[in-house]
Design goal:
single chain; alpha+beta; Mth169, Chain: A; 2 helices
Length: about 80
């Protein structure tokens, strides 16, 4: 079994209203931050694939189902 992590975030330069709202709230509460990214984290288990096959399959899943390649970027790594 191989576990893979997929992290999906908005590409740099793309409007991210959720991150903007959270950043504004953090600044109001006194947090000294410059930037904030909001993303989604997925952990996928592939029971019958080796590491290389699982990473390739995770890349397909990330591009075709979990994200919009126009506005999102994906980071894929073995857990």
């Amino acid at each position: 079994m191989t576990k893979v992590q997929i992290v999906v975030t908005v590409r740099k330069g793309t409007l991210d209203p959720e991150a903007r709202t959270i950043r504004r709230a953090l600044r109001k509460s006194g947090a000294d931050i410059d930037d904030l990214k909001v993303g989604k984290w997925f952990e996928v288990e592939f029971p019958n694939l080796n590491k290389e096959e699982a990473l390739k399959e995770a890349e397909k899943i990330a591009k075709n189902v979990l994200s919009n390649p126009v506005v999102h970027q994906c980071i894929i790594k073995e857990s």
